[in-house]
Amino acid sequence: MILDKNIIAEHNDQLLADHKRRFDFLAADIPNVEAVLDKLVAFNIAIPSWALGTGGTRFGRFSGGGEPRSLEEKIDDVGLLHALNRSSNSISLHIPWDIPGNTAAIIEHAKQHGLHFDAVNSNTFQDQPNQALSYKHGSLHHTDKGVRQLAIDHNIEVIKYGEALGSKALSVWLADGSSFPGQINMRNAFNNTHESLQAIYDALPEDWKVLIEYKPYEPYFYSTTIGDWGQSYLLASKLGKKATTLVDLGHHLPNTNIEQIVALLLSEGKLGGFHFNDSKYGDDDLTTGSINPYKLFLIFNELVEGLDAKGINHATGLSWMIDESHNIKDPLEDLLMAVEAIKISYAQALIVDTPALKAAQAENDVVVAEGLLQHAYRTDVRALVAEARLRAGAALNPVKLYRDAAVRSTLIGERGANTVATGL
Ligand SMILES: [Mn+2]
């Protein structure tokens, strides 16, 4: 399904008068409004290929119908999202779930939707059919050199697929860990992981990055070999300048101060990628901004501050991606909501009165400093984000247009009600 430009234009015409009233009211209070709009237009968030179908839990999976049956259809779905919000111009592939058959044709297909390929993701947390050795007890950290080599070879294969598609980064998330005290030698596990990652690092093209993701628990529940940002940072530092840390918002213990982690990693030049989602308890993979939007804003505040301090382009300096599991919402609607929440938090961070904040911090004026952040957070910037969409040629209200244009029922008509996308 392709959304006709005229449908978007008609939708915007209907909503334009109300939008303009709200935008003009808001813009009158934002001195650098044009600069903020330019940054909002430029800011895109990659969509992972595994988030386009219904997710599941270990208890069940309830498919919504019309799910993409192939990599081409996954690209079509990201194309739909991008047409609706002009904020998702890339797709992040998971290997082996989305191995491209004809690479040139896949690139051309993506190009027709205005898309390119973001970081490629390896998978050493599952055994594939007919796999010679098992990842049951880990991959890059394994006691058996043969298993480690299998996992290294897989990651190098993923790099090759990524190179062919024009990707510039490899994301590595390891399930490696232990569930019981005494199960593993933690020092050996870490050193094996370092040695294995070194072999992968050595195979990276010069202009690539490896993004090392951490997670405190799950699927194992006693130790995870790359369990926190310190362990990821340690590995990234040992490996070299192409290695960086990836922060997934759901991969922290409750109440962790993620904004402080972000600030320090940026300061050290070691923040490479970001996975957006939200959670109440653990790695819940809920819609970004659905549970704690203030936390998301505070993280964006540190991101903007840290990127500006280093002179890094907000849109291109880091690898931005959504990493959620859509269990009960339509995945495409969920992704539209997530992108909206990300852009709202980003816009709020962009309107913080930075000179006043710096002055208040220098004076140790706690009340004024906190008040400046709260003022930005409590500003309703939705019209600003909508204006950026309008200027980019997208829909003023993407979810409304998605419903009005009956996208899901059209997809069910095209693909069937019982299709199941590959993924989690
Ligand atoms: Mn992640």
UniProtKB/TrEMBL annotation:
It comes from the Bacteria. Coiled coil: none annotated. Keywords: Isomerase, Manganese, Metal-binding. InterPro entries: L-rhamnose_isomerase, Xyl_isomerase-like_sf. The keyword Isomerase applies. One of its GO terms (molecular function) is isomerase activity. Transmembrane segments: none annotated. This is Sugar isomerase. It comes from Polluticaenibacter yanchengensis.
